[in-house]
Write a structure and sequence with these properties.
Blueprint lengths: L2 H26 E9 L10 E4 L5 E3 L5 E7 L4 E5 L6 E4 L8 E2 L10 E4 L2 E4 L7 E5 H4 L7 H5 L6 E3 L11 E3 L12 E4 L2 E2 L13 E7 L16 E6 L5 E14 L10 H15 L12 H7 L6 H7 L18 H5 L3 E13 L4 E12 L6 E8 L1
Parallel strand pairs: 1-7, 13-16
Antiparallel strand pairs: 1-4, 2-3, 2-5, 5-6, 8-9, 10-15, 11-12, 13-14, 15-16, 17-18, 18-19, 19-20
Length: 379
Amino acid sequence: MNYKTTLRRGIGILMLLFFSTFISFSQNNFKVTGKVTDETGKPVEGATVQVKGTAIAIATIADGSYSLLAPSGNSKLVITSIGFTQLEIAINDKSVVNISIENISTSLTDVVVIGYATVKKKDVTGAVAGINQKDIRSRPVDNALQAMQGKVAGVDISSNERPGQVGSINIRGVRSLTASNSPLFVVDGIPLTTGGIEYLNPNDIETIDVLKDASATAIFGSRGANGVVIVTTKQGKAGKLQINLYNSLTTESIKDFAPIMTAAEYIEFRRWAVYYSNPAGRPRGDNPNITNDRDIFLATADPTAWKNIAQGWATGTWDGSKVSNTDWTGLVSQTGITSDNTISVSGGTNKIKAYASFGFLNNKGTSIGQKFTRYSGKT
């Protein structure tokens, strides 16, 4: 066997091996094409289409199409893209596989907008607090600040018993000794330059959010230094016409927990006080003497007071039960009655929504002469 014969046989064997490998490869792999689209049918560019368990992968082009070689049999495609759920789909030896993937924006972690940035809600839990309509109407209240009392952490709201007036509100304590400590009130996105939210009907309020942290009030600048109270009022909602009626009637009375002396107890108290100031020259407090009483209670200088005290000496012997008592608190107080009535109408379509309400509040205070009436309307 010469050299040329050996070379020809070697080349023949190599070519045979090459064609055998090519035929085997062609039999075990086939071309798969298709398009990747989102839920609305729009093409998804840059999505990765990979044969599961292999390094075979390709990215979709602008029209969402792809093309790759996949092994025959039970192969699967794995499709991944930022903002979409990962999807696995069986090829089943199909040459064309179109794929639709779902957007995952609805399952993203809640975020809170704070001025010019957004942060995760869990990171600003201590800086943002609020109440909703259910909290507002959990008890009868005349204004929105009363509804917030005791329900929002870090917010101090004082009480004011005068009808029609609201107490002061401080967010995270007093910040200045000379300047105002009142927060900024924002109603439906409009900052209030003066006043608060006492004129709003609580039945017209959907939510109240309190921004307590400096980072949460960035958009309001120096005006938000004392915190921001954001009020969102009710708006029209699509659906059938709804008519809602709210009515409440509450009563109030003054409860004085301080012990008050009767007239007889006060007279005896004065006798003992005079006795202990000079025991040698006065009778004991439990041994009353009309002459001593005239001196103690200035019978000549104050005949009106002595006239009442003298009733206890009418029989010649002291009887404190004969002395009249005066309820001074009762002379200036009364039972407070508050009537709150609101009727609202809401409804509309996806294009046109409407909400209207009318409210009437009549608040008679616990002090005689104090009364507050409020008419409110919103459309």
